[in-house]
Amino acid sequence: DIQMTQSPSSLSVSVGDRVTITCQASQDISNYLNWYQQKPGKAPKLLIYDASNLQTGVPARFSGSGSGTDFTLTISSLQPEDIAVYYCQQYDSLPPFIFGPGTRLELK
Amino acid sequence: EVHLVESGGGLVKPGGSLRLSCAASGFPFSSFSMNWIRQAPGKGLEWVSSIGRDNTYISHADSFKGRFTISRDDAKNSLYLQMDSLRAEDTAVYYCVRDYRGTFDNWGQGTLVAVSS
User: Which of A20, A46, B43, B104 is the most buried (most CB within 10 A)?
Assistant: First the structure.
């Protein structure tokens, strides 16, 4: 099975920071990679699909890039409401579906 | 607007069973694959089971094969998860999730399952 890793596991950030989270797949997954945001006590929310496409309604400060095995989620200027845990997820048209372990953002 | 509302969670003893339900509205339920995804307290997301539209496929993560069964009733716009032989490590919030080609675009609020004696 494909394995997903994320780094860092946690990050201490300040409002206005440019934030970069990476996700790595154990084998080539083309652009079959999604990013989710989960705030405390809430269900996850789809941010980016197919590695680089912004989901409707997601602020433009979020962006995604990468293909193959290495992917990046970038927040261009962190806002207080962006404090959350971020997960990557690889997919194919059929299961199994694998999530990364998550990256927790914390305010300094 | 898409709505997914889970129910059926609660406290159950080890070895017991529970059936989760998910009521869907706001979209053509029969046209979408559906999933259960869970999250243990303080842990990450774990895909549990998927069912394709028209029951074209059913898939469970290896950890749950033989214990969990996913099903759907398109006439009732409902998704189900039958969970048997429950263990303490099955304690988690279980989410009902719509997917489009493997992308989880809509999530319910979750239902908590606690397995304890």
Answer: B104
